[in-house]
Amino acid sequence: MIDKFLEGNKRFIENDFAKDREYYRKLSTGQSPTALVIACSDSRVNPERVVDAKMGEIFVHRNIGNIAPRDDANLATVLEYAVKHLKVQDIVVFGHSDCGAMKALDAGASDEDVYIPEWLEHAKEAKILADEKMPAPETPEAVREKRKMIEIENMRIQLENLRAYDFIRKAEEEGKIALHGLYYSLETGEVSRVF
Ligand SMILES: [Zn+2]
């Protein structure tokens, strides 16, 4: 399986790297991305690719469900480095359609899983709100609508969670960074601004 990727790397060098040597030479000694994107680990959601960004433009943190917990050392380190050292101007929570994490949140925890239910606790308010608005969706369209509601509400919650970090809230208040929520549709390929 991995041979496929090594073959792909040869094509990357030939079709991209070798044609833009000066750009990659600069990248080899430093980066100055303008945005931090917090995206889902989903294999169908590649934030750089769907916004046609070049390497070096986006600092990326990915996890299950594009979640930004208030007490996560991994995320906190990424935030600190991106804001204080790289001085990114934008932080984006990058949600998407057909999110497996949000489906799992909607369906309820599996008894066999240990870590996933605990992780999804960070998004449970999205499920609570969607349940209040659409307690029992009956048609497939209504089920999809409710899932999207959970996906969008989850993005709003994670933006709130980001603002719970003192240095993020302060940087936003001082106009040094702006927070956004972008949503990627797997059906159309379109990225839309939600927050
Ligand atoms: Zn997802």
Order of helices and strands: HHEHEHEHHHHHEE
In CATH, what is the homologous superfamily of the largest domain?
Answer: Carbonic anhydrase
Proportion in β-strands = 5-15%
> Would you identify the CATH architecture of the largest domain?
3-Layer(aba) Sandwich
Please give the structural blueprint:
Blueprint: H1 2-15, H2 21-27, E1 35-40, H3 47-50, E2 58-63, H4 73-85, E3 90-96, H5 100-107, H6 115-120, H7 124-133, H8 140-163, H9 166-173, E4 178-184, E5 191-193
Parallel strand pairs: 1-2, 1-3, 3-4
Antiparallel strand pairs: 4-5
The structure holds zinc ion (ZN).
How would you sum up this structure in a few lines?
The protein contains 9 helices and 5 strands.
